[in-house]
Amino acid sequence: MGKTLIIATFAFLIDQFTKWYVVFHLDLKNIYAIDVLPPLLNFRMGWNTGINFGLFAGQSDVMRWVLTAIAVLISLVVLWYARNFKGWAAALLFGSIIGGALGNAYDRVVHGAVVDFLNMSCCGWENPNVFNVADIFVFAGAFGLIFFSEKLNKRA
Description:
Radius of gyration: 16 Å
Shape: globular
Order of helices and strands: HHEEHEHEHE
Helix content: 55-70%
Strand content: 5-15%
Distance between the termini: 15 Å
Structural class: alpha+beta
Number of strands: 5
Largest sheet: 3 strands, antiparallel
Number of helices: 5
Mean pLDDT: 93
């Protein structure tokens, strides 16, 4: 479980650093848009009060705390389940999910919304959605577990 917590801590810190750097240091919160490698990678300011793709956005402040509690609860369940596995591969997948979920939960507590800033488009298609590094960690960890969980080393 120690390896999982190390990975979760690194994922959380990387997520929070990227949000701080882009949104506050580069001042995206006030300028709203920075073209990095258009159209492939752009920074677009987004404050997500809902879940993925803005679902449940615009709800009462109670929803903010419900979503925060759900993220913390899911993190605890994932951590509890991770104890059945050993090795760095399992720690990477479980820790990524936990660190990403807690990164977004932290945003809800501190900012009242999840800080999103990454936007990727391609080939004449302009993506209206934004996401963050925590989302990448959560999805990569979840997909890794879906596709590779049978190959992970289980504890005896």
